[in-house]
Amino acid sequence: MPDAMPAHIESLQQGQAVKLRPHGNSMVPIIKSGQLVTLEPAPAPDDFRIGDVVLARVQGAVRLHKITAIDRAQGRVQISNNHGRVNGWTGYGKVYGILVKVEP
Protein backbone atom coordinates (compact mmCIF):
# COMPACT_ATOMS: atom_id res chain seq x y z
CA MET A 1 0.00 0.00 0.00
CA PRO A 2 1.21 3.54 -0.68
CA ASP A 3 2.86 5.89 1.82
CA ALA A 4 -0.36 7.94 1.97
CA MET A 5 -2.15 5.03 3.63
CA PRO A 6 -2.09 6.49 7.19
CA ALA A 7 -3.87 9.59 5.89
CA HIS A 8 -6.43 7.46 4.03
CA ILE A 9 -7.09 5.38 7.15
CA GLU A 10 -7.49 8.54 9.24
CA SER A 11 -9.97 9.96 6.72
CA LEU A 12 -11.99 6.73 6.75
CA GLN A 13 -12.01 6.73 10.55
CA GLN A 14 -13.37 10.29 10.44
CA GLY A 15 -16.24 9.18 8.21
CA GLN A 16 -14.88 10.39 4.87
CA ALA A 17 -14.69 8.43 1.62
CA VAL A 18 -11.25 8.11 -0.01
CA LYS A 19 -9.90 7.32 -3.47
CA LEU A 20 -6.65 5.50 -4.08
CA ARG A 21 -4.80 3.46 -6.69
CA PRO A 22 -3.62 0.17 -5.19
CA HIS A 23 -0.86 -1.70 -7.00
CA GLY A 24 -0.38 -5.44 -7.29
CA ASN A 25 -2.26 -8.36 -8.76
CA SER A 26 -3.70 -10.01 -5.66
CA MET A 27 -7.24 -8.81 -6.38
CA VAL A 28 -7.40 -9.33 -10.17
CA PRO A 29 -9.93 -9.39 -11.81
CA ILE A 30 -11.93 -7.42 -9.21
CA ILE A 31 -9.25 -4.72 -9.04
CA LYS A 32 -6.43 -4.43 -11.56
CA SER A 33 -3.14 -2.88 -10.53
CA GLY A 34 -3.35 0.91 -10.59
CA GLN A 35 -7.11 1.19 -10.99
CA LEU A 36 -8.78 4.02 -9.12
CA VAL A 37 -10.95 2.71 -6.29
CA THR A 38 -13.31 4.45 -3.90
CA LEU A 39 -13.61 3.30 -0.31
CA GLU A 40 -16.20 4.37 2.22
CA PRO A 41 -15.86 3.96 5.98
CA ALA A 42 -16.35 0.39 7.15
CA PRO A 43 -19.95 -0.54 7.88
CA ALA A 44 -21.10 -1.70 11.29
CA PRO A 45 -19.66 -5.16 12.02
CA ASP A 46 -23.12 -6.74 11.78
CA ASP A 47 -23.18 -5.61 8.14
CA PHE A 48 -19.89 -7.33 7.17
CA ARG A 49 -20.49 -9.99 4.51
CA ILE A 50 -18.27 -12.68 3.04
CA GLY A 51 -16.97 -11.34 -0.27
CA ASP A 52 -16.81 -7.70 0.84
CA VAL A 53 -13.57 -6.07 -0.28
CA VAL A 54 -12.23 -4.11 2.66
CA LEU A 55 -9.21 -2.09 3.69
CA ALA A 56 -7.93 -3.80 6.82
CA ARG A 57 -4.80 -4.24 8.90
CA VAL A 58 -3.97 -7.93 9.19
CA GLN A 59 -0.72 -9.51 10.35
CA GLY A 60 0.76 -5.99 10.61
CA ALA A 61 0.11 -5.00 6.99
CA VAL A 62 -2.69 -2.95 5.46
CA ARG A 63 -4.46 -4.89 2.71
CA LEU A 64 -7.29 -4.19 0.31
CA HIS A 65 -8.59 -7.76 0.26
CA LYS A 66 -11.76 -9.79 0.70
CA ILE A 67 -13.54 -10.99 3.79
CA THR A 68 -13.57 -14.76 3.43
CA ALA A 69 -14.90 -15.77 6.85
CA ILE A 70 -16.57 -14.07 9.79
CA ASP A 71 -16.27 -15.09 13.44
CA ARG A 72 -18.96 -12.99 15.08
CA ALA A 73 -18.43 -14.63 18.49
CA GLN A 74 -14.82 -13.40 18.56
CA GLY A 75 -15.45 -10.13 16.69
CA ARG A 76 -13.11 -10.82 13.81
CA VAL A 77 -12.94 -11.42 10.07
CA GLN A 78 -10.63 -13.48 7.91
CA ILE A 79 -8.90 -11.54 5.13
CA SER A 80 -7.76 -13.17 1.87
CA ASN A 81 -6.73 -12.12 -1.61
CA ASN A 82 -8.78 -13.00 -4.68
CA HIS A 83 -6.63 -16.05 -5.48
CA GLY A 84 -7.20 -18.05 -2.31
CA ARG A 85 -4.27 -16.86 -0.19
CA VAL A 86 -5.43 -16.28 3.38
CA ASN A 87 -3.70 -13.34 5.09
CA GLY A 88 -5.18 -14.11 8.51
CA TRP A 89 -7.76 -12.96 11.03
CA THR A 90 -8.21 -9.40 12.24
CA GLY A 91 -10.54 -7.71 14.70
CA TYR A 92 -13.48 -5.63 13.55
CA GLY A 93 -11.71 -2.47 14.72
CA LYS A 94 -8.94 -3.00 12.17
CA VAL A 95 -11.31 -2.93 9.21
CA TYR A 96 -11.18 0.68 8.06
CA GLY A 97 -13.09 0.88 4.81
CA ILE A 98 -15.14 -0.98 2.24
CA LEU A 99 -14.80 -0.90 -1.54
CA VAL A 100 -17.74 0.84 -3.22
CA LYS A 101 -16.39 1.65 -6.69
CA VAL A 102 -13.70 0.54 -9.14
CA GLU A 103 -13.02 2.84 -12.07
CA PRO A 104 -11.46 1.76 -15.37
Describe the strand arrangement of the main beta sheet, using strand numbers.
1-2-7-3-4-5-6
List the domain count as a whole number: 1
Helix content: under 10%
Sheet bearing the most strands, described? 7 strands, antiparallel
Tally the helices: what do you get?
1
Estimated structural class: mainly beta
Total number of β-strand segments?
Answer: 7
CATH architecture: Ribbon
Question: Mean of residue pLDDT?
Answer: 96
Within the CATH hierarchy, at the fold level, what is the topology? Umud Fragment, subunit A
The general outline is globular
Provide an overview of this structure.
The protein contains 1 helix and 7 strands. It has one helix at 5-13; strands at residues 18-20, 37-41, 53-58, 61-71, 76-80, 86-91, 95-102. A 7-stranded antiparallel beta sheet has the order 1-2-7-3-4-5-6, with helices on one face. The chain is mainly beta. The model has no long low-confidence stretch (mean pLDDT 96). It is globular and about 35 Å long. Strand 3 and strand 4 (61-71) form a beta hairpin. It has a single domain (5-102), classed as Umud Fragment, subunit A. The two termini are 19 Å apart. The longest helix is centred in the first third of the chain and has 9 residues, at 5-13.
